[in-house]
Every structure is written in structure tokens, then in C-alpha cells.
Specification:
- This protein is α/β, with parallel strands linked by helices.
- The protein has three domains: 142 residues, N6 adenine-specific DNA methyltransferase, N-terminal domain (Ferritin); 244 residues, Vaccinia Virus protein VP39 (Rossmann fold), CATH 3.40.50; 27 residues.
- It contains 17 helices and eleven strands.
- Strand 2, helix 11 and strand 3 form a beta-alpha-beta unit.
- The longest helix is centred in the first third of the chain and has 28 residues.
- The protein starts with a helix and ends with a helix.
């Protein structure tokens, strides 16, 4: 069983290897070991179900079961030499061709974009032996693998420095169930990270899956793009764990590096679910891949334009965006105008803050929109009104929002889930006639949005109280509670130091 102690023990072993510098390298080391362990466990399943016809891309001496599984297997300098001279060179250069089993290219791609950082073979053997305690053919441990990813990624020293905030599972779950992709529809996450949105989509598809043909369908129709090697490896491993035999559609790719005018109709998809990186900027020249009116250094804004272009007519999307997108002007205003001309931006969920703790992320919003069959300029009408829902702070959560000790949970989204589920999809769009305004819900007309130059930072007009109207005693109590939480976190940091 995977526990916090299990994860801590592996990290502590690796800290004793002086060649491994920081949590980022520790995570990369764990990533390729985990991939080979998971792939070997899946191969045991392939060998059973494919009844003697399965041909492994990995030679027997290089399989995890051969060199890693035996507790008294290679160690010390012999293990390091084997990895350096045999394992990596062979797997990173597996021959592939048009008729090659796609699993060959998956192994080659993963092993060609990672490295072994450990130099102490004895310590590496200890890490390998701990990993062998995981039985990844068992459903419970497979489910817990997501927790491993989240725990390690939350502790990376540079997490969030480039606007990369790994999305909490309650948010991925809510967005996927709200966009509601159906088996057979194409689904894309153009900034997939470790694959959280795609795993949520897979789990949804599995609920209606009726056999092998359906499994092959969702293997073919789910796509993720990720520009960085570490999260890409984790996403591939995550897909293997969740039943994708050959996750060739999890592609190492910079989604913004191609001119958007080159996107063709057959590339467009039915559904997009994503948390675009925000707060960071792209390399020089990336913005030139976009129309001049929307060129910006803000990564998240470029992703919004890309998502609009990647949706089929009547396609739908659910994405995470920071507050700055709502009230920003200039290129942001032009982008919001484009969004509401080409799509029906029907709902914005305003979250209270702290959802991405421990990252110092800004407040975020969940945007849901449907691509129109025709643009407003073509007589399609565009967005007529936008519904807003302000998620209230649950009982026990301070004024500053969710914290490390009081994180966002699935049940916290139940109020908006209940409100959102009332409209039923009709044809290609939403029937919003049953929606009602209330203490947390309101709508704004397109005329009011245009009058404010597409500033979408509308406050809740139905809220009984806003923070600046609260009793001073409540404010002081909230500050005191926050200070206690800060003191506790500082204590944890001192222990680590």
C-alpha cells in the first residue's frame, strides 16, 4: 500500500546520493523507474491476454523483472554500469517503423528524454527494492499512484515558477463531468501536465465501456500535449496505469509553437479540458504564431486563442483561468471579444482562492464555452449573456480561502454542481432556461459586457455580504487563523532544513 511514509522513505534514500541535486532531479529519477516498473506490470497483462502473440519492445535482460525485481540483484558499481552502458542506450534507440507495435515508440520516446541521476548503486538498489513493494496490477495501488504524483509535484522547489500549477483533482473531476465528453468524441488537453484531466476523461468513458472495442476507441480519441519531459513521462505512465496499452497520443509537444493558421479541420476536436499555464511567458517569437491582434507574452491568453481554434463547430470546453484574464484590457479585451463572438461563453465559476495551495497561485475561475456553428459575424449570434456562480467558502475555511490544512475537496463543489446540472444539453448547445439567479448565481448581458470593454470581473450583486462589509471581529479572527497556519507551515519548513 502506498503511504506518505513510503514516499518519504524513497526521497530520504535519494537525498544520500550526492549526485542527485534537488527534488526536480529526484522526481525525474523516480519517473523513469516508475515507468519501467509500470510497463513491466502491464506487459504481464499483455502476455496473458494476447496469448503468446505479444512481442515485447524490451529485451529480456533489460526487463524490470530481470534486473530490478530480484532483491539480491545487481547493486553497486555493476548496477550503475548496467544502466549507463546497456539499459539506457538500448531502450532509447529501440528500432521503430510504420508497422512497429506503437508500444515500441512509447518506450523509446520516454527513455530517450530522461536521465539516470543516481551514482550510488547501493542506494539505487534500495530505491528499486522499495518500488518492488508496489503491486500495480491491483486497483487500489493504481488509484493511489495519482497521490504519489501529487505529493511529489507539490514539493518541487520550482513548482509554479513558470505558471505551472498542477490542477487539484476536485477541479479536474468537476470540469470533466461538466463538459461531459461522450465515448467516441475526441478529447484534447493541450497542456496536459501529468494527465489529470485525461485520467478523469478515461474514468468517465469506462463507466459506459462495453468491451475491447470501446477501449480501443478511447485510446484513439484521447490526446494530450505536454512540452516538458518530466510531466510528459508521468502522463504516459499515468495512462498505462489507467488501461491505455500504448499511449502514443500523449505527445511531447509545445502547443504554442505552430502557427494557428495551419490548424486543419481534421485536427479539431469535440471537447477540450485544460488548465493552461499562467503567470509565465513563452520564448521570444512564440506570439508570432498568432494573429497580431492577440499577440501577447502571457501564456494562458495564447492558449485560449489556440483552444478556440482547436474546437470543432459545436465543440465544448472547460478551462481554468486566473482572475487577471477576466479584468485585463488590451490584447485580453480583444481575446475575450473573439471568444464571445466565436463561442457561447455560457458560464464562469468564480472560486474563492487557495485551491492550488501550497503554490502561491492567483485566484482562478472555471470557464465553460461552446463553439458556435457560425460566428456572430456570420449571423451565428455569439454569446448573448454570461452566467456567473460565486463558489461560497465552506464552513471552517477562513476568508483567505483554502489552505494546506483545509484543501479543496470534491464535496465543496457540490453546490455549483447541483446548480450547473439543472440545464440539459439540447443538440449542440445548452438549454439554460431553467437556470435561476440566487445568493451565489447571477447573469450579465452582452450589452453590459461590451459597455465595460469586455471586463468580465463582475462582482456578485446578490451576495449578502462581501469581505469589506464583514464585522471587524470576523476579519480579525480570520487573520489570527491565517497566522496560526503560517506558523505551522514555517515549523514544517524548519524541520526539513
Amino acid at each position: 500500500m502506498i503511504t506518505d511514509a513510503f514516499i518519504k522513505n524513497i526521497r530520504d534514500i535519494m537525498r544520500n546520493d550526492h549526485n542527485v541535486s534537488g527534488d526536480a532531479q529526484r522526481m525525474e529519477q523516480i519517473a523513469w523507474l516508475l515507468f519501467l516498473k509500470v510497463f513491466d506490470d502491464r506487459e504481464k497483462e499483455f502476455e496473458v491476454f494476447e496469448k503468446g502473440t505479444y512481442k515485447s519492445p524490451i529485451p529480456l535482460p533489460l526487463k524490470w523483472r530481470t534486473w530490478a525485481s530480484p532483491k539480491d540483484g545487481m547493486t553497486g558499481e555493476a548496477l550503475i554500469k548496467f544502466i549507463k552502458e546497456d539499459l539506457f542506450p538500448t531502450l532509447a534507440n529501440i528500432p521503430i517503423g510504420d508497422k512497429t507495435d506503437p508500444r515500441h515508440s512509447v518506450v523509446r520516446k520516454v527513455m530517450s528524454e530522461t536521465s539516470n541521476h543516481m551514482s550510488e548503486g547501493v542506494l539505487l538498489r534500495q530505491v528499486v527494492n522499495r518500488m518492488n513493494e508496489l503491486d500495480l496490477t491491483q486497483g487500489a495501488d493504481r488509484h493511489a499512484m495519482n497521490d504519489i504524483y501529487e505529493k511529489f509535484l507539490r514539493e518541487l522547489q520550482d513548482a509554479g515558477s513558470a505558471g505551472e500549477y498542477y490542477t487539484p483533482r476536485p477541479i479536474t473531476n468537476f470540469i470533466v463531468e461538466t463538459v461531459a465528453p461522450k465515448l467516441g468524441e475526441t478529447v484534447l488537453d493541450p497542456a496536459c501536465g501529468t494527465g489529470g484531466f485525461l485520467v478523469g476523461t478515461l474514468e468517465r468513458f469506462k463507466q459506459s465501456s462495453k468491451g475491447k472495442a470501446d477501449i480501443e476507441t478511447y485510446q484513439r480519441t484521447i490526446t494530450g500535449w505536454e512540452s516538458k519531459p518530466l510531466p510528459h513521462i508521468l502522463a504516459v505512465t499515468n495512462m498505462l496505469l489507467h488501461g491505455i496499452d500504448a499511449p502514443i497520443n500523449i505527445v511531447r509537444r509545445d502547443s504554442l509553437a505552430r502557427p494557428t493558421v495551419d490548424i486543419t479541420d481534421d485536427e479539431r476536436v469535440d471537447c477540450i479540458v485544460a488548465n493552461p499555464p499562467f503567470g509565465g511567458s513563452q520564448k521570444d517569437g512564440t506570439e508570432k504564431n498568432f494573429p497580431k491582434a492577440f499577440q501577447t507574452k502571457e501564456t494562458a491568453d495564447l492558449f485560449v486563442y489556440l483552444i478556440i481554434q482547436m474546437l470543432k463547430p459545436y465543440g465544448r470546453a472547460g478551462i481554468v483561468m486566473p482572475d487577471g484574464f477576466l479584468f485585463g484590457s488590451g490584447a485580453k479585451s480583444r481575446l475575450k471579444e473573439e471568444l464571445m463572438q466565436k463561442c457561447n461563453l455560457h458560464t464562469i465559476i468564480r472560486l474563492p482562492g487557495g485551491e492550488f495551495t501550497p503554490y502561491a497561485a492567483p485566484k482562478v475561475n472555471l470557464l465553460f464555452f461552446d463553439k458556435l456553428g457560425r460566428t456572430a459575424e456570420q449571423g451565428g449570434g455569439g454569446t448573448k449573456e454570461v452566467w456567473f456562480y460565486q463558489l461560497p467558502l465552506p464552513e471552517g475555511v477562513g476568508l483567505n480561502g483554502f489552505t494546506k490544512t483545509m484543501p479543496l475537496r470534491d464535496e465543496h463543489l457540490d453546490p455549483v454542481r447541483k446548480w450547473f446540472s439543472s440545464p440539459k444539453r439540447s443538440g449542440g448547445g445548452l438549454d439554460l432556461k431553467n437556470r435561476k439567479e440566487g445568493p451565489n448565481a447571477w447573469k450579465v448581458s452582452m450589452a453590459d459586457i461590451k459597455a465595460r470593454d469586455y471586463n468580465l470581473d463582475f462582482k456578485n450583486p446578490n451576495s449578502p455580504a462581501t469581505p469589506d462589509q464583514l464585522d471587524p471581529k470576523e476579519i480579525l479572527e480570520g487573520i489570527a487563523k491565517t497566522e496560526k497556519e503560517i506558523e505551522k507551515i514555517l515549523g514544517e519548513i524548519k524541520k526539513e532544513v
